[in-house]
Amino acid sequence: MYWYFLVMREHYADFGGRARRKEYWMFMLVNMCIISLLCIAGALSGCPWICMVYGLYVLLPCVAVSVRRLHDRGKSGWLLLVSLIPVAGVAYLLYLFSLDGQKKLNAWGANPKF
To answer: Relative to the CA of 62, which of 4, 93, 97, 114 has its CA 20 to 30 Å away?
Structure first.
C-alpha cells in the first residue's frame, strides 16, 4: 500500500522525474485490486457507476506513473501513444515497463533506486 499512497499523495499528476519498477507495478497491482472490488460491489449493489468514478479518479495518476516509468528507461512519455496499436503496442509497453531502469543519470534525473 505504501507505493499506492506514494503515487496518489505525492505524485498524483507528476509527469516529471522517474519511477522505479517496484513503484509502478505495486501501484498498478493495488489499483487493479481496488477496481475489481469496486466493480463487484457496484454490480451487487446495483451501482455500477462507482467503478467508473474511481477509474476516472485514478486515470491521471496511472498515466503519470506510466510516463515516469518510461522516463526511468530513458524513453519519452509520448511513447505511451504506442499503446494505441492493438496488441503489439501494449505488449511492447509491458516489455519496457518490466525492464530495469537506467542505472546512470538520464534526462529525467537520477536513478530512483539509489
So the answer is: 114
Q: Assess contact for 22 and 2: CB atoms under 8 A.
A: no
HSE toward the beta carbon, residue 36, CA cutoff 13 A: 6
User: Cα dihedral angle (59, 64, 90, 103), rounded to 10 degrees?
Assistant: -160
Residue labelled with grid coordinates 494505441: 84
Per-residue pLDDT, 44 = 94
Instruction: Kindly give, in sequence order, each residue whose CB lies less than 8 Å from that of residue 18, ignoring residues fewer than 6 positions away.
Output: 68, 69, 71, 72, 101, 106, 108, 109, 110, 111, 112
What are the backbone dihedrals phi and psi of residue 87, each rounded to the nearest 5 degrees, phi first?
A: 60, -65
59: pLDDT strictly greater than 80:
yes
Which amino acid, 80? L
Distance of CA 52 to the CA centre of its chain: 17
Closest CA to 110 of 69, 72, 59: 72
C-alpha span between 64 and 36 (Å, rounded):
21
